[in-house]
Specification:
single chain, binds pyridoxal-5'-phosphate, 8 helices, binds 2-OXO-4-methylpentanoic acid, six-stranded mixed β-barrel, alpha+beta, about 25% helix
Length: about 350
Amino acid sequence: MDLEIKIIRNEHPNPKPQDESALGFGKYFTDHMFIVEYTEGIGWHDARIQPYGPLAIDPASPVLHYSQEIFEGLKAYRRADGGLQMFRPIENANRMNQSAERMCMPPLDPEFQVKAMKMLVELEEGWVPHMEGTSLYLRPTMIADGAELGVHPAKKYLYYIICAASGSYYKNGMAPVKIHIEDHYVRAVKGGTGAAKTGGNYSASLKAAAEAAKKGFDQVLWLDGRENKYVEEVGAMNMIFVMDGKLVTAPTGGSILPGITRKSVLQLAQDKGFTVEERPISVEELFEAHESGRLTEAFGTGTAAVISPVGLLEYHGKEMHLSDGKIGPIAQDIYDTLTGIQRGEREDPYGWVMKIS
Ligand code: PLP
Ligand code: COI
């Protein structure tokens, strides 16, 4: 797609956060955003990078009523030599289009999406933090626009990318998380929208997360929506279990987000000589494997969370303590390799990294 991207510079840039150890996640937005508009019959038009700021949305816009919305999350990293790079941006652009297909939204050329990400990061160069564990988080988003209350796909859309200088997703960084296995609420069912990165999946998960938080848990592990038996994923992460020294994870069969970190971790693990299994895992199997000492580690994988070790899994009041409350050796090894590649400290034999400068 050969659409020119205009740049309208922000004449009033914001001061950048000084303390990189206190960035948290998704709070410090940069000075510019990318935006492109879609109109039925015309296609995508008016691509530009403009000052970051509020959007003018009609109160009757379908995104506000029917949640016709999708998003992505990826990161740009600063290398030790000061240069910048992104991790697998084309994967996010392709997944954006898969989500678009499920939500009856128009696709946007993946190469064009990546070009827009690259131009935006180049312009916001000064916002990319330096400290280990920090990055510039990019949030590509597509929303239905226009003004019509009928329930049907919109005729106008906005695709935009915002960026936030970010640190750790969880307040306690790499400290192992406590997870409640949810058996009442469900996140997604086969045939539903679980595999799409659409806002409604996340708002639907808030109540279970809030109830779990009241009981002292950091996250909820969702079970399949049909039998309430097989583990699926956590709010913002896929889950990997180490059983008998093998990496075992739920298959991405339609109700789970096909995570890019998950895919990268499984590839790294295989290349390190581990056996990888993608298959249904019941809660019963997890407890049995834990009791017999065969379940040694559990960790979540995600762009925002990176690798997040699990210290405790709870189901019906029964608790499973893992890795003595520390990150397990396999999770640590994979974390070191993955973040090493992402930050340009390790060789990238896979071609995952896209250099910007
Ligand atoms: N599952 C859900 C529900 C998510 O929101 C995310 C985050 O993007 C993931 C899994 C992990 O996906 P990825 O590794 O592509 O970030
Ligand atoms: C991500 O890991 O990029 C996510 O989108 C997780 C999230 C904050 C919803």
